[in-house]
Amino acid sequence: MYGLNELSSSDLEAYRAALRRDFERVRARTEALVAPLSAEDCQIQSMPDASPTKWHLAHTTWFWETFLLKPMRAGYETPDPVYDFMFNSYYEAVGPRHARSRRGMVTRPSLEGVLSYRAFVTDAMGRFLDETEEAAFAKAARLIETGLAHEEQHQELILTDIKHALYQNPAKPAAYPRPPTAGGAPASGWTTFEGGLNEFGAPATGFSFDNEHPRHKVWLEGFALANHPVTNGDVRAFIDDGGYRTPALWLSAGWAQVQAEGWDAPLYWEKRDGAWFEHTLHGEQPLDNTAPAAHLSYFEADAIAEWMGPRLPTEAELELAAAAAPEGRSHVAGACAHPAAASDAPLGGFYGEVWQWTTSSYGPYPGYRRPKGAIGEYNGKFMSGQYVLKGSSCATPPGHARATYRNFFYPGDRWQFTGLRLAKDV
Fold it and tell me: What is the CA radius of gyration of the chain?
């Protein structure tokens, strides 16, 4: 997305200018997402898995400071040394940090103070991008690309976390204005893929995360994928048929969570007077039966696939299909953060609607080694107990997704825009 991993001297300055533009664009988009929110909205933390908007603003600033400005910018001094403790997320090699579950307790600095911190670091990074001598800049380029992708990941988290926070409000307020109605009837049927030996993982050129490497071969038997993700209408039928009350459909751990947490519908669904409604970032709306079902845990996705008859796909199956999938909708910051009915093209809704669960555990590819240093904690240390998702969602920033991208969550998580696409053997 952001250019080359290896830079020649002839194109270094042009690439430097491109990174400068990307940096300005990404930083501005984060603040555009936050602009409609109040200071109170930005302070709240609705559960340990979700962070306050204010923390996301500060943490994405701390990242630039910690991994680029402090080690590479001579004479740089942080506005406040306590930020090292407050806004570290999980980087043990960097030092101690404030407990994740207590991020909402940090009322100071204020939102205004955090925005001032962002402006300070944004200005310092601008000078770093403009003034760093060529050899040092070339060495830093890969880390700058990672910082841009990191902030984009937090843009998606800002949307999913504030959605969960506002859902706790009895009024179920909107974070953003309601968008125009979009969508239509999704394509029906299946797209078939031949079996064989294929290469997977990211190529050597272009930006990618470490967990997308190395390239490796996987043998696949022939399979078919549904042309659209499972819809709200499909899930309503599952509910009406007693899906949440039928233990035979569920994995053991999933059924235990259904019982423990009282699940009887996807997160954000509510039924009143026989009609279903869904809380969205644009306020409560009548449930759209044609739209992809979102906010489903892996356990729910697996049970729904079991009930419908086919199965969930593997990571390799979805990655192979990704090259044939049409591009998703282009989203303006915060303006269209809700799934809409997939296009009538085969493999519609692959990008830009819901992340799609796979049966593949999140683990290392053959030959993978974690990068050295604190940045090696970014992906590698989470390769336990989670499942891979492919595609992208309506909350994913434009241009952030790619076929080799590996999203991952625990099987009981459902506050993200996660859904499913069915697969079957042929």
Answer: 22
Element (H, E) at 34: helix 9-34
> Which residue, 211, 216, 249, 252, is CA-closest to 361?
211
Residues 426 and 420: their CA atoms lie apart, in Å, by 19
pLDDT digits (tens, 9 = 90+) for 86-140: 999 999 999 999 999 999 999 999 999 999 999 999 999 999 999 999 999 999 9
Task: Read off the pLDDT band of 2 (50, 70, 90).
Answer: very low
Q: Among residues 12, 32, 13, 20, which one has the least CA distance to residue 397?
A: 32
CA distances from 12 to 122, 129, 134, 140, 141 (A): 21, 12, 8, 12, 10
Question: Residue 100: which H helix or E strand, with range?
Answer: none
Q: Is the backbone of residue 108 left (phi > 0), alpha (psi -120 to 50) or beta?
A: beta
**pLDDT above 70 (res 368):** yes
Residue pair 153/316 in contact (Cβ under 8 Å)? The answer is no
The verdict on pTM exceeding 0.90 is: yes
